[in-house]
Hints:
Blueprint: E1 2-5, E2 14-16, E3 19-23, E4 56-57, E5 66-72, E6 84-95, E7 98-101, E8 107-108, E9 111-112, E10 118-122, E11 146-155, E12 166-167, E13 177-181, E14 205-211, E15 226-233, E16 251-254, E17 269-272, E18 275-283, E19 292-296, H1 300-306, E20 317-320, E21 322-325, E22 336-340, E23 343-345, E24 349-356, E25 361-366, E26 369-371, E27 381-389, E28 392-395, E29 418-423, E30 427-429, E31 433-442, E32 448-457, E33 461-466, E34 470-472, E35 475-483, E36 486-495, E37 502-512, E38 519-528
Amino acid sequence: MSVDAxxxxxxxxxxxxxxxAGAAAVVPSAAADAPLLRTASTIGTAxxxxxxxxxxxxxxxxxxxxxxIRVRGDxxxxxxxxxxxxxxxxGAVIAPDTILTAAHCxxxxxxxxxxxxxxxxxxxxxxxxxxxxGGAVIPQAGDTAQTxxxxxxxxxxxxxxxxxxxxxxxxLTDDVAVLRLAAPLRYDAATQxxxxxxxxxxxxxxxxxxGYGVRSGxxxxxxxxxxxxxxxxxxxxxxxxxxxxxxxxxxAVTRSRAGSTCQGDSGGPVVQAGTIVGIVSSGAACGxxxxxxxxxxxxxxVLRFVQGEANPPLAPVGGEGVALRAPxxxxxxxxxxxxxxxxxxxxxxxxxxxxxxxxxxxLQSGPATYLLKPAxxxxxxxxxxxxxxxxxxxxxxxxxxxPAVIGGAAPAAARTRLRLALRAPAVVRRGGSIRVEAQVRxxxxxxxxxxxxxxxxxxxxxxxxSSGGVRAGGRRxxxxxxxxxxxxxxxxxxxxxxxxSGPAPLVTGTAxxxxxxxxxxxxxxxxxx
Length: 529
């Protein structure tokens, strides 16, 4: 039995969540178009309404890490006299002089916005949404508004800006920037930092999003600060179903029946248990039931950049083709289940979790195989693969579960038994090649189904030619739909240039049937001059 979980192809285009507002004031705001949620893409259009869709109004003291970033649309320094237009984004205080935001908020198309064009406002709960008012702060009880200019902007080196406000998830990874303020903020009840997370995978559970963004796609601004507690979706869910799919190591994904982030919330914080786990980036649309895609701050590819590294390590990307395999379509106690992680980039190491899907109990975490025990009778088992690099942790979607495990051994006649024999001459000369036969014999009581035969050359040899088969890494593999008695595969190995003389492993082979156990054999040879 083989159970595969293959994500659907990524096709959706997402919209960035910056907001554009017109102003005739002398002080502009920050944010430019960037890749992924719906955001206004033209500086100077009619004002947009900043507000979390479906959220509730909150005082800044409830989310004191929240800031508003404004940026002039003409690229001039903030405070330059004369009329101007400006755009807005959210951000989060992580140190007195440091603000975390989305990289797309720091670009106008493909052009980097200079630091002097930004201004950061903290410690306030309401702004003036009137066109021409410049987004001025309207003091509220408990507010202690502060405004700071920006001295420097650091953008993630792998983020790629683009014209327009739409792109795919793959085009919008590493959407993170760090602003250094010209003067530090004063901490008080309305301005406080949020902690950075420990390195890890995409978060699960519940988080809070907040911001001054619009309340509906293309809506009008009301000037309030809003917050919404939202579930964090398993980011490994395929993109076509609202997750981040193979890019899950780099994204936190939210989806709620109550609402979502929207235009003007870009760059804002996604906070869980007092730590910032996400930076608002993009989404397909605004509103209830819509997925929001946020840069995963816990991924070391992101976190180590935030902490100052110029070239952080890469996170793993992949998981397509994850599969759970069993010897038969009706697994029994005593059978071994094997979890295959699918294909991945950036050379991760793997661990696997086997789970009873009836109640979510984790049966085993660690190796790729799980031996079904008597206590597993009746359980339906699925697996998840975890891929780890220095840049992050990605996970596969959970595979579909097996049928309920049957207790007791299968009748002997229903079993297949494979034996593998590798045959080759005992001696080969340096610079020469050698013919090898891999014979698979079925000595069990039933036809072997879906037989896969794979051979791996020893370190001093390389495959020179073969009778069919496909390359899989350094291996050569063949598939045979069924074997009643025997099947033989023939191939040649060539001695690698410079290989030393003497006894050496020639080739290692395995033969596995979907309804039987794996057979193995190793052949050795002597290399002579």
